[in-house]
Amino acid sequence: MNIIQEFETIAAISTPLGTGGVGVIRISGDKSFEIALRITNRKDLPAGKICHGWVVDNDVKIDEVVILPFKNPNSYTGEDVVEIQCHGGVNVVRNILDVVLKNGARMAERGEFTKRAFLNKKLDLSQAEAVDDLIHAKTSNFAIQSAKNLSGVLAAKINEIKGDIFQTASRIVAGIDFPEDVAEVEYSVLVEKFTHSLDEINKILSCAKSSDILRQGVKVAIVGRPNVGKSSLFNALLNLDRAIVTDIAGTTRDIIKENLDLGVAVTLVDTAGIRDGENIDKVEEIGIEYSKQSAQEADLNIFLYDASVGLTSEDKEIYNIVRDKTHIVVANKIDLIDINDFKEELPNTAKLSTYSAYGLDELKGKMRAIVCNFSLEDTEYITNKRQQSCLLKSKEALERALFAAKSEELQDMIYIDLKSALLALDEITGEVITDDILNNIFDHFCIGK
Ligand code: GDP
């Protein structure tokens, strides 16, 4: 049975502030109905019924609205909730929120509605996090994956693993507490059980890379020495004049980022040219450092050099930064030479002219093939960094238990590791959670969610 916790009544605008068809003000808490009746011309608000009425403040009609009353526990938060649908103008929704606040509600904090849903056990923590993912999804694919977690796919898998570990832990405890009545669990059984649980955890962790990429998108950095045409390529890929193109070396000093849709969300990073030399000022030096860092962090590097000059020693140094990472080599300014004279100096070099757009579609195709491959590897279980770190903690504890079982150590000791493994999994679903972690999660939500 759900235990509904008592909190102050809160209210917020749940729709984006802007001009639109409808705006929604949400009220949650035990005074919701009382407040809604006070601020509208309604005599009653039957729960579960769509009600029509006017919001009235001191005899002034504020707006004609539709009111959706929900009685606890049958609401999003598990508390009494009243949602007021009004006309979607910035000032209309603000006026209604003001009236609600004047009549006894307090302004909701970020994510407070979902936090209450979690505390009232309407959602577990992995589902609450999925709500935030769904709202912020950068691609339709990630939104679909987040909806899977909202429906409880990850929670169900975690609970299944927890159930297995819990069962083994209980058998160990029974053997310890009642040695005369209950036989010690055979070590071969323990090895088999722990191996199975580890396999299941690894199954989720194997989707971590895909999860990260689906969530954040793929980072693609364009690297090369100054003047090889990085900014020109950046603009050509984005079809805009965002980066400054000049023939003065070192013009792109900041990292410039833009989002590009290649089926997967791509963050394209135009880096300051990487070069060595004496005439480098402090600002450019910082830019160069950032560029090296961007190249290290990128999921895919596009290494650019000037085909009319050929691969210089400076180019080779930059190539060394990216050669062991996923990369595409591009010889730019191919328009400056006779294409038949081009000699490939590095394998699989793509020929390009950002001037004539020669080779641009082919390069985009290569990029698309690589980034789509990144994200589609394994997406059965989508996790975030917090969940991944809990899974790793649980995995380490289980590995210790497995090692101990193989070495036939005392089962009391194995039990301690199993408890740690369970605790880490409990953190994912939120059975065990500190206020700090909780606040950290819900502080990222928007107000009204
Ligand atoms: P970055 O410093 O690597 O970002 O290079 P830019 O994009 O600023 O380009 C440097 C110079 O090369 C500019 O004068 C561009 O117009 C020129 N450039 C860029 N791409 C091409 C190209 O494909 N062909 C030719 N001929 N010139 C190019």
Order of helices and strands: EEHEEEHEHHHHHHEHEEHEHEEHHHH
Query: Which residue ranges are poorly predicted, with pLDDT under 50 across at least 5 consecutive positions?
Result: 241-248, 250-254
Number of helices: 15
Q: Strand fraction band?
A: 15-25%
> Could you say which overall geometry the principal axes of the C-alpha atoms support?
flat
Q: Residue-averaged pLDDT, rounded?
A: 89
Helical percent range?
Answer: 40-55%
Bound molecules: guanosine-5'-diphosphate
The major sheet is characterized as: 6 strands, mixed
The secondary structure category is alpha/beta
Q: Radius of gyration over alpha carbons? A: 29 Å
- Strand numbers in spatial order across the main sheet: 3-4-5-2-1-6
The total strand number stands at: 12
Reconstruct the topology from this structure:
Layout: E1 10-13, E2 20-28, H1 32-39, E3 51-57, E4 60-70, E5 81-88, H2 90-102, E6 106-107, H3 112-119, H4 125-136, H5 140-150, H6 153-177, H7 187-205, H8 208-216, E7 218-223, H9 230-238, E8 256-261, E9 265-270, H10 282-297, E10 300-306, H11 313-322, E11 327-332, E12 350-351, H12 360-375, H13 385-406, H14 411-429, H15 435-442
Parallel strand pairs: 1-6, 7-9, 7-10, 10-11, 11-12
Antiparallel strand pairs: 1-2, 2-5, 3-4, 4-5, 8-9
Bound molecules: guanosine-5'-diphosphate.
Residues 224, 226-232, 245-247, 251-252, 273, 332-333, 335-336, 353-355 line the site of guanosine-5'-diphosphate.
